[in-house]
Amino acid sequence: MLIGEVARRSGVSARMLRHYDSLGLVRPTGRSGTGYREYSGEDIRRIFHIESLRSLGLSLREVGRALDDPDFTPSGLVDDLIRQTLDRIAAETELLTRLRRIGAAEPTGWEDVLQIVALLQALGSDSAGKRQRAALSSAAEDRMPVEALVEAVLSETDPNVAGALRWALARSGDDGLALLAHGLRASQAEVRTRAVQAIAAIGNDTADALLHDALTSTDVAVRRHAALALGPRGVADAVPTLIDMVLAEVNDVEAADALSALADDPVTADRIAAGLIAPLGTGTADPSTRRRLTQALAGIPGGTASRALTELAQDDDRGVALTAVYVIRLREAGGDGGR
Known about the structure:
The protein is mainly alpha-helical. Among the domains are: 3-72, Multidrug-efflux Transporter Regulator, Chain: A, Domain 2 (Orthogonal Bundle), CATH 1.10.1660.10; 284-339, no CATH class. The protein is 71% helix and 1% strand. The protein is built from 19 helices and 2 strands. It has a two-stranded antiparallel ribbon with strand order 1-2. Helix 15 packs parallel to helix 17. The longest helix has 31 residues, at 74-104. The N and C termini lie far apart (108 Å). Keywords: DNA-binding. GO terms for molecular function: DNA binding; DNA-binding transcription factor activity. This is Transcriptional regulator.
């Protein structure tokens, strides 16, 4: 079969067949009566083998080795091809993500595109300083795609950079909340914590609704960050978690401040006081815990808290007793001696 007919039947161009010939991949084994090269049935089968291997991503050199090397082991080559393909997919996926983010920023010209690319590159830098500057710049210029900010804030380990990213993200309003809500369900605990911190920094009704749901999270760190944010905003459902934080000595000063903010409502104040006092009645609270509870009761008005402080002023532990006496005097000076 002459080269033209082989090209028509195989779909491989005559030019490519000649290239195969020059490389020694497929050399026609016969000659026509007029001296033209003819391809045998075996030659044509080899052409199809070459095309099959090329479809897997092999180079022509690798194809030749696969067909001619008696020591060739296909399993090793297939493993290499799998790794190369995965690397290529990852690179293409990263490129696609970058392009989508640039598109989402709605650039009006090449200057905008170049600026966004520069910000994205800086945000992925190994330098914490560059990442922080990118976050601050994106907030000032409002050019960073929200998806990129969310991804960055959920993966950032440097506290200064994380703070800048949360600030930049807060300026975007509700745009990143759906992605952050997904972060609350992440398998990694540190990602869930970063997500709830970022949501708390946004501080609007939609964010508060997410934080309210987070109060029932199975992740205690998520519950605590949500409670610290919601307490000062008047959400009484945060009370149990805040009391737990005082008892556990986890951000207990901040938790006590949040409880004090919630205690403006008399009913809530009595509820808080009862919750703080409850461990005292069991006799299991050690002096350190009793001292923290005393300090927390300082910001809770009402008779329930005042009576508890009077009892604590007689505590066996001198430090607890002195703290209670000091708090009582402050309350009396401030006009809350027992109301």
